[in-house]
Amino acid sequence: MKLVASESLNFAVFRTAFEQGKELGEEEEITTQTLIESMQNSGRRTGVDVRPSMGWGTLLQAIYEEVAESSTVAPTFYTDFPETSPLTRQQRKDPLLTEKGDLIVFGSELATACSELVDPVFQRKRLLAALSGYVLVCR
Questions:
Q1: Across-strand partners of 100?
Q2: What is the pLDDT of residue 16?
Q3: What is d(CA 106, CA 69) in angstroms, rounded to the nearest whole number?
Q4: Which residues pair with 90 in a beta bridge?
Q5: What percent of the chain has pLDDT over 90?
Q6: How far is CA 67 from the centre of its chain?
Q7: I need a surface site. Which of 30, 78, 100, 130 has the fewest CB within 10 A?
């Protein structure tokens, strides 16, 4: 799903970015409700080096980089990334996603933008969780 904002710049939601490159399969759609085992299978089919230590967000990020980012040619701003950066603010609608976006052109990331998490208590919790390999959803 892409919303064309102008003749020169496209906007795409991160989780639908997989329409760009290698096919995951007609029946496959990756959402925040997708089980990790299903995502691991999708990752393997698309060429991602899936490791057991990869969490939901890290695995989704790797699939995105393999499938969508590398095959994006036209300037495209992807949004709604999974929580992989501990200092990026969570989305208000879905706490597994963040308020982050990347501008991709010819397979290269040219810019990143995000809303920063500014609560020092949550920052500390999320940084400690990131160090231990866990994703902490702050509410």
A1: 114
A2: 52
A3: 9
A4: 98
A5: 5
A6: 12
A7: 130
